[in-house]
Write a structure and sequence with these properties.
385 residues; seven-stranded mixed sheet; 15 strands; 14 helices; 46% helix; alpha/beta; globular
Amino acid sequence: MLQPLRLVAAGVAFAAMHTLTAAQPAAQPVPIIGLVELSGTGATAGTNYNNGVKLAISEINAAGGVLGRKISYSAWDTQSNPGIAKSLATKAIDQGAPLVMGPVFSGSILVSMAETRRAEVPNVIGGEAAAITQQGNPYVFRSSFTQAAAMPKVVRYIRDSVKARSVAIIYVNNDFGKGGRDMVLKELQAADIKVLADISTEAGQLDFSSAVLKAKQSGADALFVYSNEEESARVLKEVRKQGYDKPVIGETTLANDKVIELAGEAANGVVAHVGLTPDAPNPTVQAFAKRYLDEYKSKADHNAMKGYTGMHAAKAIFDKIGKIDSKAFAAAMHGASISAKQYPGVLFDVKYDDKGDLDRESFIVKIVNGKAQVIETLKPAAAAR
């Protein structure tokens, strides 16, 4: 009788060990929180960014999660309000999030990132204002180009392809718009291109007749537009209404599908530099675009790609350090190179610098018959040099 008793005892011990192992912290989900603009003026950008994050997380979890742990994700609405973004960042820290995704709007990022920095929690953001990474915050990382990286490419196109010697600028008077305007002014000056009209507009503005008339009367060779999605569409409709016939050029937002949808035929002919586009001639990107369309019944835009690639980049860094550790994550992210072959979710080979800015290939697109078409692929800045 002793032998069977020993077997029973061994079985009970094994079951107890198994229960204890399953209860260890390593089996608990990784709690990642998104601070995203789900309402207010940034709802289009924030919702798409959030959808990209969620799609990436579903793929990561389906493949076993991060270091064997699933990700639990909560998206909190900043309401496109910097004050709310700041308070939500504090709440995310209090709840022990080892990583915060978003916001997208630069004004919200500039206040919320002070909280994540204070708590030494890495923050992967969708904003492009150059000031974000110029403050020396070691815990903030982009999923898009900084304006400082994008605007030289825009100006080279204006100079070399459009052959423009003068430009009119219409920009939105917020952190995003002012940052882009300051950077493009600097690059235009360096290229000896004159700015004949520098026109400030407001977020949420409805009537752009005066702004477009000023640009038209300036006699500039081209118009550069830098605003939010809805306002950009209104500018383009007014451009068409007034019969403006000079080239209209912009950056990523101007070629956004939401802008094309709202502007209709008025978007045709617009040319923009984009850091991310679902229309890139890249099988991995096209596969992502199909998955996104199947999941959300809408076409991915650059904001969706920011959220998606940013989350997959975070997964790569957690894999590299082999633990869920905020400080180690931030240290490893600086100077990191992530291969799209090893981590297809980043879509393109990407390299981060010591400020949290990234470098990868980008594109010049033209709106033709209501669709963005890639007309030129630009090498990463390091390769171009």
